[in-house]
Amino acid sequence: MKRISICSLLGALWLAATLGYGQERLRLINATLLSGWTENGENVRALSGDVFFRQDSAEIHCDRALQYVERAQVELTGKVLLLDPPRRLTAGRVWYDEATRDYRAYLEPQLQDTSRTLTADTLHYCERWDQATAVGRVAIEEKHHRVRLQGERAEYRRAKGYARVLGRPVLTEMDSLGALLMTVTADTMEMFDDGQRYQLAGQVHIRRDSIDAYCGRLTYVRAAQKLQLTDHPWAERAQDVMRGQEMEILLQKERVVGLHLLKQTAVLSRVDSTQSRSEEYDLLTGERMEIAFQNDEISQVAVRGQATSYYHVYEDTVAKGMNKALGDEIHLYFKEGALERVKVISSPGSSSGIFYPPKQAAALRSELEERLKQVHALRVMTNEK
Predict the structure, then answer these.
(1) CA–CA dist 15, 67 (Å, integer)
(2) CATH code of the domain containing 363
(3) Cα–Cα distances in angstroms (integers) from residue 287 to residues 19, 103, 140, 272, 342, in the given order
(4) Do strands 2-3 and 33-39 pair parallel, antiparallel, or not at all (unpaired)?
């Protein structure tokens, strides 16, 4: 290593003034201490103490800098701040390329813009594509802290409002007071339209209010307050299991207000264990099912298209038999979580409601068990995906 002369240092300072092709080079505005030398034929300078660079509209602040003049790179350390509105980066250590204006940030890097904040263990930003790639303990959080995406790797295209998160990703949503509303896990997560829409794929698991829902693909449209589940969706709530080829979870004022099941739908309900000592289930099936919630309790269920209901009847823990109802539509009304009324709607002659006393219910019980096996088989197949 050879120390350079004052004349050589002034030459290096002049070199730093222009880059060509209309782009300004990194300009030193302030530093408390400055020293320079040549290393392998290259001019190097070390700066410390309130270091301040400027390049076009960007400002760079740090405690220390090691600048490689000819290769147009600088290593920034100690309370690094890169300010280029609307972007703002803070980190403990940054490698900055003044020609491409790309950088690699380490030691708790945080990239902010007008919409959200990105944090990670390592962050690489590409100026040309306005794209950030993050690795290790990644978190992408909205400006107002309502939605956060976390994972092990992420790609963030700021101008397009797009992000992709991999590596055990988790989506969480908070209410206006910061209380947790929803948690979603999946294999991959994508954000579109600056957070207006999210798409998740793989082993998707949604927790919202008292519902646990599962599927292979999820689309969350925030403006419409709707979660759309496809690819073998099903949901659990208390003693109920719900499934269909498609499923929608409807939200209003941050609560679940509806659950729509489409195509080959079924709701499997565990008979109250205080009434039945054995594990028994009621079953409701149809082509379309609409379940309404009020204060996180089911208030009404409407089944349409080949609606069928199997229902066990108990009175003071004594089995009184089973009931089977068929119709174009079946409506169930609940009060304080308990079934209050059942209404069957159908064209004349195509609806029926038959009650089977215990001694006559064997055939109906076998029919129900066969239908229940189909629902259980779907759950096992979905869990094994």
Answers:
(1) 12
(2) 2.60.450.10
(3) 68, 55, 39, 26, 18
(4) antiparallel
pLDDT at 183: 97
Q: Domain total for the chain?
A: 1
Taking the C-alpha atoms of residue 140 and residue 120, their distance in angstroms, rounded to an integer, is 9
Distance in angstroms (rounded) separating the CA atoms of residues 346 and 351:
6
Contact 65, 51 (CB under 8 A): yes
Phi, psi of 366 (to 5 degrees): -65, -40
Count CB atoms within 10 A of the CB of residue 376.
Answer: 13
Percent of the chain with pLDDT over 90: 57
The mean pLDDT of 124-140, rounded to a whole number, is 95
Contact between 226 and 251 under an 8 Å Cβ cutoff? The reply is yes
Contact indicator for 195, 222 with CB cutoff of 8 Å: yes
**What is the pLDDT at residue 378?**
53
- The reported pLDDT for the residue numbered 64 is 97
| Domain of residue 344, residue span | 2-384
Q: Please provide the distance, in angstroms rounded to a whole number, between the alpha carbons at the two ends of the chain.
A: 61
Amino acid symbol at 370: E
Tokens of 323: 């009931």
What gap in Å lies between CA 251 and CA 258, rounded to an integer?
A: 7
Six token digits for residue 325:
């109802």
48-91: per-residue pLDDT in tens? 999 999 999 899 999 999 999 989 999 999 999 999 999 999 99
| Cβ-based neighbour number of residue 363 at 10 Å | 9
Mean pLDDT value across residues 237-254: 91
Q: How confident is the model at residue 375 (pLDDT cuts 50, 70, 90)?
A: low
- pLDDT value for 340: 82
Whether residue 15 has pLDDT greater than 50 = no
Instruction: Please report, rounded to a whole number, the percentage of residues in the chain having pLDDT higher than 70.
Output: 85
Tracing tokens 């950030």 back to the chain, one arrives at: 132
**What does the chain come to in residues?**
385
The answer for residues whose C-beta is within 8 angstroms of residue 308's C-beta and 6 or more apart is: 283, 284, 285, 286, 324, 325, 326, 330
The four Cα atoms 171, 177, 181, 186 give a dihedral, to 10 degrees, of 0
Give the whole-angstrom CA distance, residue 162 versus residue 184: 18
Distance of CA 381 to the CA centre of its chain: 24
